[in-house]
Amino acid sequence: MNINIDQEKIKALIPSDFSFTKKEKIIMLIIIILMIIGIIITWINFVQIMKANAEYEFAYQQYQEAIQKEQEEAERKRREKLPNLTEVGKENIQHIYSSDTKRAFLTFDDGPSSNTNQILDILNQNGIKATFFVLGSNVEKKPDVVKRMYDEGHFIANHGYSHVYESIYQSPENVLAEYNQCNQAVRNAIGEQEYNSHLFRFPGGLVGGKYADIKNQANELLLQNDIVHVDWNALNGDAETTKPTVEYEMQRLQETVGNKQSVVILMHDAEAKKVTVEALPSMIEYLKEQGYTFVNFYEIIK
Predict the structure, then answer these.
(1) Options 109, 110, 238, 269, the catalytic residue
(2) Which of 101, 112, 117, 251 has its Cβ near the most Cβ atoms within 10 Å?
(3) Which residue segment(s) compose the domain that 25 sits in?
(4) What is the CATH number of the domain that holds 135?
(5) Which residues of the chain carry a pLDDT beneath 70?
């Protein structure tokens, strides 16, 4: 469509004397300059905002990646502390008393008690990780001590719940039930519901006694549930007499360790075993002098 513009009529609409004064020109120039400055400032701000947003997104991405790595590392460490019984682990248990090098497993039964924190202090001072065969009934009384054991890298094994022979050895199923009851108490104490030591020590040991048949049947039942047992081949004698002395415990340790290459040493951290706490530094020093290195069952089960 063609539009014809009558230029004469347009000119007639504009006054003949219309013109900008000098002042009006200056004002117009200032307005134009201000508009240009405003546009420039707006553009600069826009660029800075976009840059800040990009930097924020990058920093946030870095933060998210760092959090993810931290979570993955925490999960890795958590998984490492969960015992995992493999066929190799079962084989290791079968040959626990054989080794090409001299090694010592410090094991403590019947705790935790008021003595356990002192034992943990001594172990930490010497950089030693031990194995604690805990009683579920005592775990429920001192969950904070069990949590400390776990946090400091000691192996928490299972000694049943009650330690009452008449109860635990009523049947093989009772032994398994006490194992499970103790295991649940440990899980609650350490705040880890996937924990399972897979390692049991029969109260009184597996071999012999009036409950020998029940124990042997129970051992088969435990194996069917991926639970292995371990006894000991050396001890400090703290359960052999009601009033042991430091000298007596040292003598029994030396006698029973003898020239063995691999020793699983039975001790107790029950309430009445204060002398064991007193003797422990000397026992550790003796074993060091004899060339033993200290290991715990994390290195066997996993």
Answers:
(1) 109
(2) 112
(3) 21-80
(4) 3.20.20.370
(5) 1-20
